[in-house]
Write a structure and sequence with these properties.
- The protein is of the alpha+beta class.
- A hairpin with an 8-residue loop joins strand 4 and strand 5.
- The longest helix has 15 residues.
C-alpha cells in the first residue's frame, strides 16, 4: 500500500500535536473498574509541628530573592505561590502549587485576626485569587509601625519583599486571609 505524501504529513502533524504540552489538559483516568483512592488533603496531617518564628525568619531572610515565574527555590527564584509553598515545605508542610489551589486550604479568618504566618490573597490580574503573601508581625520588620505587613514575591520590582496590606494598591485588591495552623 502506498501512502501519499499529503496523508503522511497530516498523520505526522497529528501525532506531533498530540504530544505537545497544553494548558488545562485533563489528566488521564485510571483503567476502567480500577479502585481510586480519594485525593488526600495535603494539610490534613502535617509531617511536623509548625515553628512559627522559624517560618517568619525564613520568609524575611529571603527578601531580595529574585522573582521568577514558576520559581520555587531560592536559587531559581520565586513566584508568589512557589515562595509560600517553599516556606511551608521547609517545615514539612505540603501545600499545593498554585494560588487558586492554596486559596482552598485552611480556614478563612477576619482581617482583624490576621497574625504572622497567615496567608493573604489578592486579585491582581483577574477575578479570584491570583496573588498570595504571608503575614508577618510589624515588630519583625524595620520601618513598619502599624498595619498588616506581609512578605511576598511580586513580579513588580522583581524581588521578594515586604509590603503593607493597608497600602492603596494592596487594599484595593485584597480578597481575604486564611490560616493553616
Amino acid at each position: 500500500m502506498l501512502i501519499r505524501p499529503a496523508t503522511w504529513l497530516i498523520a505526522v502533524s497529528a501525532l506531533a500535536t498530540a504530544c505537545a504540552p497544553t494548558v488545562g489538559v485533563r489528566r488521564p483516568a485510571p483503567f476502567p473498574g480500577a479502585v481510586v483512592a480519594p485525593a488526600a488533603d495535603p494539610l490534613s496531617v502535617p509531617a511536623a509541628p509548625l515553628d512559627l518564628p522559624r517560618l517568619v525568619q525564613t520568609a524575611l531572610a529571603l527578601q531580595g530573592t529574585r522573582y521568577q515565574l514558576g520559581g520555587d527555590t531560592p536559587g531559581r527564584g520565586f513566584d508568589c505561590s512557589g515562595f509560600v509553598r517553599y516556606l511551608f515545605n521547609e517545615q514539612g508542610w505540603e501545600l499545593p502549587r498554585t494560588v487558586s489551589e492554596q486559596f482552598a486550604y485552611g480556614r478563612t479568618i477576619r482581617e482583624g485576626d490576621i497574625r504572622a504566618g497567615d496567608l493573604l490573597f489578592f486579585a491582581t490580574e483577574s477575578r479570584g485569587a491570583t496573588h498570595i503573601g504571608m503575614a508577618v508581625d510589624s515588630g519583625d520588620v524595620p520601618n513598619v509601625r502599624s498595619g498588616h505587613p506581609f512578605v511576598h514575591a511580586p513580579g513588580e520590582n522583581g524581588v521578594v519583599r515586604v509590603d503593607v496590606l493597608e497600602s492603596t494598591y494592596w487594599r484595593a485588591r485584597f480578597l481575604g486571609a486564611r490560616r493553616l495552623f
